[in-house]
Amino acid sequence: MSDKKAQTRERILQAASSALIQRGPAEPSVGEVMGAAGLTVGGFYAHFESKDALMLEAFEQLLARRRASIDDMDPSLTGEERRALVAAFYLSRKHRDSTAQACPIPATVGEMSRLPDEFRDVLNQHVELMAAQLAASPEDTDKALADMALMIGGLALARALGPGELSDRVLRASKSAVR
């Protein structure tokens, strides 16, 4: 793939990632994504076979970045310490309000039943890998799963409420419950 084609593909993926975070993978149109990338719809199929293929790749990339950030943490931290650090960022105003590199799960889970099975497969793999990263031991995995569910639900509710005092309270309450 040429450098120019690779750069164009990356611009499309970045625009798709932003749309996915804000509105989920089903709603944004190809035209909207291509317009946000500064491109015309006509060039879309030179890079992706379908909108689902584009959104799936954007979803995979965003989730992989989340896991990579956990890999960068100090390996001597306990599972509880890892989860507290993740919660401090994940349940922050900055993350709630981000439109670029935020977690796509809150915007995606409600659409999962209408998406191709590959989205569920990617989500399953991510949840398994992330729980293992956040657990101190195999016995701690269920606690990591519970904390992940709490964080995702807290962020989803805070985003739905929009910036404001109640949304901030949801973030604080969720963060304090992560153990």
TrEMBL record:
SUPFAM superfamilies tied to this protein: Homeodomain-like, Tetracyclin repressor-like, C-terminal domain
Claim: Chloroplast is one of the keywords in the record: no
Domain HTH tetR-type, residue spans: 6-66
TM region positions: none
Domain of life: Bacteria
Gene Ontology MF term list: DNA binding
Gene3D superfamilies cross-referenced by the UniProt entry: Homeodomain-like, Tetracycline Repressor, domain 2
DNA-binding positions: 29-48
Pfam family of the protein (one): TetR_N
Keywords: DNA-binding, Transcription, Transcription regulation
Protein name stated in the entry: TetR family transcriptional regulator
